[in-house]
Amino acid sequence: MPIDDLWYLKERGPDKKRLKSKRYGRGKRWRVRYVDAAGEPRDKHFDRKTDAEEFDNNCRAGTAPEVGLVQAEKHITFGAYAARYREARNITWGLETRTRIESNLRLHLIPAFGNDPIRKINQTDVLLWLAQRLADGTASSSVRLYFELFDAVMAAAVRDKVREDNPCDGIKLSQVFRGLSRAPKWVPERDDVLRLFKVVPQRYHALLWLGAGAGMRIGEALGFEDGPRCLDPENEELHVIQQLRYAPREFEGGFHLSLPKGVRTFDPAGGAVDLDPVVAAALDRHRKNHLSPAVEMIDTTSGRPIRRRVPLMFTTVFGNPFTDRTWSAEWIKWRRAAGWPEDSQHSGFHALRHFFATTLIVNHVDPKEVQRALRHSTLQITLETYVHFWPRRTRKKGVVGEVLRSAADGLDLC
Length: 414
Prior knowledge:
Layout: E1 3-5, E2 8-12, E3 18-20, E4 30-35, E5 41-46, H1 49-61, H2 78-89, H3 95-113, H4 123-135, H5 140-159, H6 173-178, H7 190-199, H8 205-212, H9 218-222, E6 231-232, E7 237-239, E8 243-246, E9 255-258, E10 272-274, H10 277-289, E11 294-299, E12 306-311, H11 324-337, H12 350-362, H13 367-374, H14 379-385, H15 400-407
Parallel strand pairs: 9-11
Antiparallel strand pairs: 1-4, 2-3, 4-5, 6-7, 7-10, 8-9, 11-12
Helix pairs in contact: 2-3, 3-5, 4-14, 8-10, 12-13, 13-14
């Protein structure tokens, strides 16, 4: 049961010093690999080495809950356990309760989880199930009843030592229901995006790629600078660590850089997302054909305002940063020429981010990977926002560029 340091590579450099891994500074540092009660390999991550060592010792001694599940229960399905749960409690329930619980298990929970080993159902599975029921039009009051019953069955499984934890813990239905308002009212399809590329000047095609191929918001894309601070092609990463803002009453010149939405502290590793090869090609072509003028402005991303020259990759034809007004004027023209809806609230640059997210989803990218790509603070936000697009899926990477490229052969959009 080894303990791995994920922030450093095992091999050392020419100077015998340890080499930092790609994950350095990102996520929990220490990983413990162990074999669970069913004999399957698992791993668990820790911030502190002492915690990892303690868990490793408990696994070796057989006292850790992860390795101490009741052996007779290790393969039991949710359906089998739910039937036993109901039979054991029938005597304490009234006729109406017995009828309702039997019906809800048979019609709503067993079809969703019945054949799954109960100990393998995780919180992502539960959130997906909730999202799918709401997307199907199931009343929130009914969803609440089904969830509460599922929660009760899982809590009993924990008490019976069939599971180590309850996957319903931490899920707040009020937030799930409220989150439905985040769902986009309109999402462009492939042909809508291609029409936009046709009408937007070539000097801004790479900007569109940052939205449609990397899920960046408009402020993040306009604040994207040429250089390793934001672009790391060697490690196939983009660093979404800043956004361009315009506040003439607060800053001299108005333009300044701030942290992206929802980010409170500067963290290059936390803002790293995968760089799609097609997006990388578009950015490389833009850098060769267009200069990145250095614009002096205030940078507040580190917490202390610093004036520096920022080599912005995207500016107006006069080499100036875009204000909200100058960008909107251009976008409205392009949007109308592409035949996008006139409703500016739902057909702005952010619609490209929705295209990016839904393309990942329908191409079976794992939900947690979608969350990471969108840089949402929680998986629940991702699932709620795109509630109508979620089937169950497996991991697949690098699909957005291929979707557009396969349809755009010969159009020279990169």
